């Protein structure tokens, strides 16, 4: 799956640093907040899923991997989730600066940090305590795995995306959820990558997206799939 994708500039940090440098300049000059990856409707559907499955009243701790301009986390805050429980990480400092600037403009006290998910655990929020196994109630991804899968392969031809499912398992608390939206992988391909004995993730649900028909086959532009991590054995 990921190993079959050919590397491209979309999988390089240099590309995203350049993109977010330009978007940060545009925001500072004309107030434009930048591209909404996969569009506003996808953001709304992911927020609706969260509200239905992990309601704001439960005060869940959420982290978005590759938070970009922060659109998804801002939408979650507007839906009633405590900003102090929302965190975003991105390996591009420009993305973090842009998200912080937009959040300040909207008077939302959200946390964004520069961090490479494949190398480092997301920094904990002030109310959180480090635990032996995972701390986050919900881990979110909107297009980040897609970009990682386009990165340079190692000497054995493996994509950097091969390390991604294991990293999700490490930071997600038992019983917690992982919600991902992808344009490079189908629902079945996401299940094959994440619902394994190694990750202890099982398929939970999917988000319906508008479909199209081509050549007698139906499909959608993006796939959104939720997984849940197994509880610790008693």
From TrEMBL:
Q: Please state every residue range assigned to the domain named Methyltransferase.
A: 59-200
Q: Which Pfam families match?
A: Methyltransf_31
List its EC numbers.
2.1.1.-
Location of this chain's protein in the cell:
Cytoplasm
GO cellular component terms attached to this protein's record: cytoplasm
Under the heading InterPro entries, the entry gives: Efm4/METTL10, Methyltranfer_dom, SAM-dependent_MTases_sf
Q: Which domain of life is it from?
A: Eukaryota
Set out the biological process GO terms recorded for this chain's protein.
methylation; vesicle-mediated transport
Which keywords label this protein?
Cytoplasm, Elongation factor, Methyltransferase, Protein biosynthesis, S-adenosyl-L-methionine, Transferase, Transport
> Looking at its record, which EC class is this enzyme?
transferase
Entry keyword annotation includes Cytoplasm:
yes
Family statement: Belongs to the class I-like SAM-binding methyltransferase superfamily. EFM4 family.
Q: HAMAP family annotated for this entry?
A: Methyltr_EFM4 (MF_03188)
* Cited function: S-adenosyl-L-methionine-dependent protein-lysine N-methyltransferase that mono- and dimethylates elongation factor 1-alpha at 'Lys-316'. May play a role in intracellular transport.
Q: What is this protein called?
A: Protein-lysine N-methyltransferase EFM4
Gene name of the record: EFM4
